[in-house]
Amino acid sequence: MSKKRKRYSSAFKAKVALETISNESTVAEIAKKYEVHPTMVSGWKRALLNGAADIFDKGQRSKQQSEVQVEELYRHIGQLKVERDFLSKKLNL
Length: 93
Fold this sequence. Notes:
This protein is mainly α. The chain has one domain (10-92). The protein contains 3 helices and no strands. Helix 1 (10-21) crosses helix 3 and helix 2 crosses helix 3. The radius of gyration is 26 Å and the shape is elongated.
């Protein structure tokens, strides 16, 4: 019978990665403390360091996405108005 693969929560991964970044103990010590493989700890640390800029960038990115979406919706509204006016003129004749 095979073992089920253990899944770790995002909060747990962040906690371990932050402790690794603090450099108070080695990766091996942290891995032993939390009973995970040192390679996983190193991967979580790398992911945290690579993704840290995205945490501060999310507000800016979502604002840009909403502006693009609003522009697209206005374009669609304009198109619908033109179609409505065209059809109303044709039906009144």
